[in-house]
Amino acid sequence: MSRTHIPGTPGLLRTINDRAALELLLDTGPMTRSQIGDLTGVSRPTSSQIVARLEAAGLIEATGAVQGARGPQAVMYAARTDVVVGLALDVLPTGVRASVVDARGNVLGSADVPTSAERTAVRDVRAAWDAACADAGVPVERVGTIVAGVQAAADPVSGDLWLVGDLPGWPLLGVRTLLEEEFGVPVRIENDVNLATIAERDAGRRTEKSFSLLWLGGGIGLGTLIDGSLHHGATGAAGELGYLPVPVTVREYDDHSMNLQDLVGGRRFEELAARYGVPGTTYAEVLTAMAAEPDSPAVVALVEDFGRRVAAVVQPVVAVVEPHLLVLGGPTCIAGGQRLADATRSHLLDTEQGVAPIAPTLVPVAPVLRGAEAVVAADVRSLLLDRVSLHLADHGAPPVTSSAVRPSTTTGALAPSHSG
Predict the structure, then answer these.
(1) What's the CA gap between 228 and 232, in Å, rounded?
(2) I want to staple 329 with a disulfide (CB 3.0 to 4.6 A). Which of 92, 361, 365, 397 is the partner?
(3) Residue 100: beta bridge partners?
(4) Contact, 259 vs 245, CB < 8 A?
(5) d(Cα 264, Cα 273) in Å, to the nearest integer?
(6) Number of folded domains in the chain?
(7) Tens-place pLDDT, residues 88-124
(8) Residue 48 sits in a domain of what CATH number?
(9) Predicted confidence (pLDDT) per residue in 233-292, tens digit
(10) Are 332 and 349 in the same domain?
(11) Partners of 191 in the beta sheet?
(12) Is 108 helix (H, G, I), strand (E, B) or coil?
């Protein structure tokens, strides 16, 4: 069977070459025309044309000069990452953490914005947008995309929320459409533990073929990376462990818990802390006391007891997913640290089940926001590259665009809600 070959048009080739050059500048930093030509494989005249087009589009700028081996100094060019930026959000029960991020993942500014009793999704985003841009010194109109982490399962196709934790003022249906219509930019709504899993990957777990992140806080959740891809399930609710009934073996030491949320959630942790004499009357106070005296007998006893509970939560994860590594994250696990990881593994060894390596998180500070920053940086990069195509399309070249800023079934929300 014969196949018709359609050669690339000059406009299409220009688009491809210009995008490749801009990607190169984003990845490696400033270069001369000659270096751009050498690394993209085009001739010196073509390289000069690429630079001229990108400079005319406002996507690159001259940043200095270097002395060449022969002849005069050569001008260095760098990508302009200030042309479009992204807004990363961690939506919390009492406020919003926000960062402004460029295409290289640099955090240009940040803000913590408390919310009022009259909070809405639009008010939350607008206040965070204004405050973070002011801190970054970036005009608000340069924000081209938003990624928001929420305590809920987020449908990767519709963006609708369900199994919602503590998210006052935010609608369950149509929230992504609402925000996109209000602000005029693409919006991703992601589960918070999904984003924490991305942050864990970027912090040093890339060598693992697969790993799961168990988040324990006021609520519980699970994020799983399989062969480099996040697993979120059909509607974004994969990892909702809190609704699973407790195993029969748990009755030996806990005859009150009906499900895994009851077994290891924040309220039960408070009760156990009081039982073992750890200071504090609230969950936050208990965590503070544990950080102050991690080796006190009361804290050691609490963590050991809690480890067998975590082992009961982990058993179905190991049985179904069998990850290469299980990471313990969230406020409770951060307070327990390596001792909790060791206690959990010790209790698993007493079962007939295989045991994955267990480790404390590498991202104890703002993991949800850091994950949102990583996702929005990739989206900003795609928007910046698409500006090459848009500029050339205005001059007769066919557009070559990326769909990375539109949530899809491969990058949508991963798992668990209620992860306080």
Answers:
(1) 13
(2) 361
(3) 87, 109
(4) yes
(5) 12
(6) 3
(7) 999 999 999 999 999 999 999 999 999 888 899 999 9
(8) 1.10.10.10
(9) 888 889 889 989 999 989 999 989 999 999 999 999 999 999 999 999 999 999 999 999
(10) yes
(11) 150
(12) strand
